[in-house]
């Protein structure tokens, strides 16, 4: 009861920043899941082949990786972190608004690269700020944080589904039925895989007449709706900046959030913990002087082997699971509409939502479980279950 009372007290004291960080991760989820069901419409919009449009995924994920590393630069002060979150969440709304105007696959890939940078920055900064606020009690709050990722990813395909095209890219005067259109798309994909291996930005396009001008306008409404839905998120971050008196037009005052030292005193239990097995660098949190100072050899001298084992294992688990999650949700739609499944476009649009819906449900269930079960046990059960599902 004492632990629950302390955690609830910390939540009440930091309710506004906590809700803001959770909402920012909603933007992350909204942006990570929309490419899957809209892939074929974007392919039609950019007059590109499926192998070409697939490079849009690569640009987003590569820049997400770079953005995650870049987010560590903004960790020194609260002002830097909040301004980074404001810029990133606002950039996601701008990306949604601009995507319908991208008529070239290279331009679309560049826009998605910007979205990836924003997502990576959000991923690093929001996680770091919640850990800084709640420290040893941050597990439950991080679970809720990632629940909002799933919620945004669940909502994104549902918004896009009513605006998806019912057929593949076919000219207006084409009288072929849906089956022949599917054969045309399948043949173009097979040929495109061989013709674009040397260079992804070749001028190869789909066979047949170009797409009519009005064919790609319906999905644009989905992107503009998502841009409006995401717009309150940067406004919430801006409001937090105002409450913390970090706007340039406001006088500088003491931030409402607890500092790291105050948090340490607030969350420290009565009995002193035994940290003699750790080197001094690991006994307390200290800011790094530069971006790569944490990688210096002296910081790891004398660290127990379990320290490295935990970090390596966590990295491998994320590499195997989190990366495959994004790839699966992105390509399950285009896989379903092709032979041998040949699922209807509208029905296939619900597959990413179904997938992310159960991810969201799993993250919601894991919130109370994480307070009663060891992390190693949870990871083992989840990895084994995931492997069985893939098999």
From TrEMBL:
Main location: membrane
Entry superkingdom: Eukaryota
Compartment annotation: Membrane
Gene3D superfamilies attached to this UniProt entry: MFS general substrate transporter like domains
Matches recorded under InterPro entries: MFS_trans_sf
Transmembrane segments: 21-40, 52-74, 81-101, 107-126, 138-160, 219-241, 307-335, 347-365
Keyword annotations from UniProtKB, A to Z: Membrane, Transmembrane, Transmembrane helix
GO cellular component: membrane
Membrane association type: Multi-pass membrane protein
Family stated for the protein in its record: Belongs to the major facilitator superfamily.
Protein name listed in UniProt: Uncharacterized protein
């Amino acid at each position: 009861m004492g632990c629950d009372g302390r955690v609830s007290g910390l939540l009440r004291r930091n309710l506004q920043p906590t809700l803001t960080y959770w909402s920012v991760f909603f933007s992350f989820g909204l942006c990570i899941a929309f490419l899957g069901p809209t892939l074929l419409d974007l392919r039609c919009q950019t007059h590109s082949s499926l192998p070409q449009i697939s490079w849009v995924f690569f640009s987003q994920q590569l820049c997400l990786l770079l953005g995650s590393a870049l987010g560590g630069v903004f960790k020194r002060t609260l002002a830097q972190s909040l301004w980074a979150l404001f810029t990133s969440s606002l950039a996601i709304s701008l990306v949604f608004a601009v995507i319908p105007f991208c008529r070239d696959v290279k331009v679309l890939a560049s826009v998605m690269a910007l979205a990836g940078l924003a997502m990576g920055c959000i991923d690093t900064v929001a996680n770091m700020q919640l850990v800084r606020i709640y420290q040893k009690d941050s597990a439950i709050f991080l679970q809720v944080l990632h629940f909002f990722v799933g919620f945004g990813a669940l909502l994104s395909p549902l918004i896009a589904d009513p605006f998806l095209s019912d057929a593949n890219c076919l000219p207006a005067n084409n009288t072929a039925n849906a089956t022949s259109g599917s054969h045309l798309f399948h043949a173009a994909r097979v040929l495109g895989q061989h013709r674009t291996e040397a260079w992804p930005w070749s001028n190869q396009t789909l066979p047949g007449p170009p797409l009519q001008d009005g064919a790609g306008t319906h999905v644009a409404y989905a992107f503009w709706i998502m841009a409006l839905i995401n717009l309150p998120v940067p406004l919430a971050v801006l409001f937090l900046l105002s409450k913390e008196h970090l706007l340039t037009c406001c006088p500088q005052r003491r931030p409402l959030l607890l500092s790291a030292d105050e948090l340490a005193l607030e969350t420290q239990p009565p009995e002193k913990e035994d940290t003699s097995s750790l080197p001094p660098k690991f006994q307390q949190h200290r800011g790094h002087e530069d971006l790569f100072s944490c990688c210096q050899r002296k910081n790891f001298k004398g660290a127990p082997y379990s320290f490295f084992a935990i970090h390596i294992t966590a990295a491998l688990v994320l590499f195997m699971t989190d990366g495959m999650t994004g790839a699966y949700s992105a390509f399950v739609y285009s896989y379903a509409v092709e032979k041998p499944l040949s699922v209807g476009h509208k029905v296939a649009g619900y597959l990413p939502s179904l997938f992310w819906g159960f991810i969201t449900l799993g993250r919601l269930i894991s919130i109370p479980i994480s307070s009663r079960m060891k992390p190693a046990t949870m990871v083992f059960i989840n990895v084994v279950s995931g492997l069985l599902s893939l098999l």
